[in-house]
Every structure is written in structure tokens, then in C-alpha cells.
């Protein structure tokens, strides 16, 4: 079970985290949900399609993305968070800024998703204070703008596992109630590194924490399939995620909730 402040997710089956990018420059759907009305409508749509929780982010972390000021990120995220809280679905705040996390958690966000892997001790303190679980993601350096310059590994699975294990231990020792581990598909990894991580996802599951996989529409999917436009990479994304579920992933971070819900319904009817 993942306990999310009034919500509990039974992770005996895979759960879907719907992506809500409140940005003008995200790699796949930047600009589509920048206006609060559009974001709220999309959130309602994803809930209807079968999302189990939603992940709200106001800063793109694609390679080369320009940083967003603290006030701008707050302006993008906090009004939408406030509007969605009454809908009764767990809400995750996707941010690497402690100041944004502090306000979102004080408002009632249920989960912190930190692409920098809780390297900043202030994130640990916030999750401990509000008793909110955290997603710890692997990225080789704390800055997404330069992460692809550090995509060489001797043993990508072992190195990612060691980082996530150390950060999880640090978080729990600091009082964070639960952690979710994310190998950081596409974050400072090349195609083969991404594939190795998914092939051996069960080695991360061995650490004893829920594992999240977020391969949705990413460049590796395009390189494997020849599909150029991110929004057209739905089938490849579903295939990657189903393999991840077979290897033990319990949360899938996705753009295309409906397609994943249908695929999981069939998968689970066969596999469970």
C-alpha cells in the first residue's frame, strides 16, 4: 500500500499516474494545458479515463529546457493544485524547488516527485514534516540541462540501484514515511541504458520499495519505432510499460491514460 494522506493505493496491481504538464515547453504537450481551465479539464478527463493519481509540474525537465523562476512555477502550479484538490484523487507535485514543494504540501498535495532524487535536504525535511511520501528519481547530475552529458555508465543498473538505495535510506532515516523509486528513464541515459534498466527493473524492486516507470512518449520510444512525433508514440509507450509491469513496476507515469488503462485491464485479466 502507498499511503497518501487520506488516500491509499493498493499496489498489488499497477497504477496509472496521469501527467499534467503546466508548461509551454514540455517535450510532448507543452503549451496545451498552460491555461488553468485547460489543465483542469484535462485532469477531469484523465480521471474519467482511469488515472489513479495525477502528477502536476510547472517546469520542463527535458534536456536543454530553460529554467523557470520560482514565482513563475508557483503561478503555473498552485492555482491548478487548489482547483483539483476537491476532486478526490491523489495529487503529486513534480518539482525540484523546495519553495514550490513547501507551498504545495502545505495546501494538501499528497506526494512529492523530485527529479533530482532528494539531493536537497530541504526536500527531506518537508516530506518528513508533512508526512508525505516521495518519488526518488535517478538522474546522474542535479541539473536536467546537462544530464545527457553524463550518460556513460560502467554498469547502469548497478549504479542506478546504488543511488536509489542510498537516497531511500537517507529519506527514511530523515522521517519520510515512504519512498517510491524511479530509475529515471531518459534522464541522463542513452537508448541502451534505458532498455537495460527496464529489462532489469526487478533488481530495483528487490530494494523493497514501489517502483515507478515513466517512459511515456520519450525519445527512446521514437528511436526504437521510427515515430518522430512524441504524441504518436502511444503504442510503443504502452509496450514498454507493460514489460515494466512484468518486471515489477507498480506505478506508470503516462500521458495517454485511456490507452494504458485498456492495456492494463487486458494484461491483468491474463496475468493475475
Please give a structural write-up.
The protein has 272 residues and is an alpha/beta fold. It has one domain (2-271): Alpha-Beta Barrel (TIM Barrel), CATH 3.20.20.20. 43% of the residues lie in helices and 14% in strands. It contains 10 helices and 10 strands. It has helices at residues 36-49, 70-84, 98-107, 121-130, 156-173, 191-199, 201-205, 219-225, 234-246, 257-271; strands spanning 2-3, 8-9, 15-21, 53-57, 91-94, 111-114, 134-137, 179-182, 212-213, 251-254. The strands form 2 sheets. An 8-stranded parallel sheet has the order 8-7-6-5-4-3-10-9, with helices on one face. Strand 3 (15-21), helix 1 (36-49) and strand 4 form a beta-alpha-beta unit. Helix 1 (36-49) crosses helix 2, helix 3 (98-107) runs parallel beside helix 4 and helix 9 (234-246) runs parallel beside helix 10 (257-271). The longest helix is centred in the middle third of the chain and has 18 residues, at 156-173. It is globular, with a radius of gyration of 17 Å. It starts with a strand and ends with a helix. The model has no long low-confidence stretch (mean pLDDT 93). Its EC number is 2.5.1.15. Its cofactor is Mg(2+). Pathway: Cofactor biosynthesis; tetrahydrofolate biosynthesis; 7,8-dihydrofolate from 2-amino-4-hydroxy-6-hydroxymethyl-7,8-dihydropteridine diphosphate and 4-aminobenzoate: step 1/2.
Amino acid at each position: 500500500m502507498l499511503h497518501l494522506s487520506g488516500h491509499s493505493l493498493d499496489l498489488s496491481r499497477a497504477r496509472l499516474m496521469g501527467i499534467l504538464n503546466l508548461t509551454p515547453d514540455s517535450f510532448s504537450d507543452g503549451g496545451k494545458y498552460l491555461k488553468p481551465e485547460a489543465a483542469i479539464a484535462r485532469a477531469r478527463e484523465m480521471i474519467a479515463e482511469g488515472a489513479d493519481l495525477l502528477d502536476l509540474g510547472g517546469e520542463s525537465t527535458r534536456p536543454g529546457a530553460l529554467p523557470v523562476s520560482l514565482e513563475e512555477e508557483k503561478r503555473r502550479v498552485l492555482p491548478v493544485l487548489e482547483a483539483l484538490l476537491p476532486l478526490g484523487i491523489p495529487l503529486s507535485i513534480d518539482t525540484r524547488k523546495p519553495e514550490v514543494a513547501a507551498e504545495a504540501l502545505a495546501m494538501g498535495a499528497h506526494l512529492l516527485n523530485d527529479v533530482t532524487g532528494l539531493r536537497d535536504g530541504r526536500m527531506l525535511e518537508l516530506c518528513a514534516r508533512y508526512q508525505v511520501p516521495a518519488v526518488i528519481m535517478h538522474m546522474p547530475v542535479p541539473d536536467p540541462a546537462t544530464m545527457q552529458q553524463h550518460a556513460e555508465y560502467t554498469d547502469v543498473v548497478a549504479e542506478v540501484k546504488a543511488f536509489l538505495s542510498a537516497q531511500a535510506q537517507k529519506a527514511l532515516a530523515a522521517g519520510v514515511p515512504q519512498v517510491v523509486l524511479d530509475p529515471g528513464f531518459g534522464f541522463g541515459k542513452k537508448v541502451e541504458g534505458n532498455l537495460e534498466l527496464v529489462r532489469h527493473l526487478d533488481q530495483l524492486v528487490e530494494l523493497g520499495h514501489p517502483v515507478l516507470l515513466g517512459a511515456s512518449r520519450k525519445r527512446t520510444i521514437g528511436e526504437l519505432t521510427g515515430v518522430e512525433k512524441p504524441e504518436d508514440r502511444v503504442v510503443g509507450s504502452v509496450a514498454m510499460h507493460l514489460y515494466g509491469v512484468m518486471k515489477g513496476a507498480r506505478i506508470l507515469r503516462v500521458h495517454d491514460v485511456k490507452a494504458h488503462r485498456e492495456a492494463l485491464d487486458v494484461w491483468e485479466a491474463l496475468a493475475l
